[in-house]
Design a protein that fits this description.
Helix content is 10%, strand content 22%. By secondary structure, the chain is mostly beta strands.
Amino acid sequence: MPQEQYTHHRGTMPSSEGPQVYKVGIYGWRKRCLYFFVLLLMILILVNLAMTIWILKVMNFTIDGMGNLRITEKGLKLEGDSEFLQPLYAKEIQSRPGNALYFKSARNVTVNILNEQTKVLTQLITDFADIHGGLAAPGPKAVEAYGKKFEVKTVSGKLLFSADNNEVVVGAERLRVLGAEGTVFPKSIETPNVRADPFKELRLESPTRSLVMEAPKGVEINAEAGNMEATCRTELRLESKDGEIKLDAAKIKLPRLPHGSYTPTGTRQKVFEICVCANGRLFLSQAGTGSTCQINTSVCL
């Protein structure tokens, strides 16, 4: 750095000496330090500029956005896989036309619908693991939905399934249960028709309790192309309070009715008559010229 020189006059007093010259500026080791810091600052500026250009290049900064994020007239557009480490708030999330929309998470996925007071009205949770004593067991647990009512409808708006606190409605024309063990109803079931698939058998079974079928206008059991079997361990009751019980068939067999004791009087025949006890029990008695039910009343005891 050039040094500045100036001449200093001490007023009007005469002096035998010549004018004095003072050196003004930075020189010596200070000058070298200044040059070093200026050079270091230029290097830092160049490095900073290079790093900025590299970051812009790697992050794919453009006028329209950054990386997979693009700014459009309708909002933000994400291309490819995107990861959000914090909650995402958006009015609408939709995929590109013709493509599916995927939500992936290493843990649970929760969707909340809030009201104006930020209280949860509807919630959908996919649980990843069971937590017992602070330890998480790997593997999926369940999909849970919380709300006042749950509905499933077709594209045309027809109700297929709905559930609330009062009832569960299945609006489909047919309900099929594909499990090998069938369907279990701990309480009663109300339906106008129970039908099996074609060429499949229909079984109504109560392994440990009784099975009761009631209807105000009658119960009809019909097997058009097969046999019908009613089996119980203790008691089978057919009751009609105001009407009659009609057995309409070409053959009616009661093979396990008890037999009355045979008496040697009269000729032995292979013809029997059905006798009814006072308690309603039926038994067979060998037919004779007259009724033999009175002879075998010991069966009624």
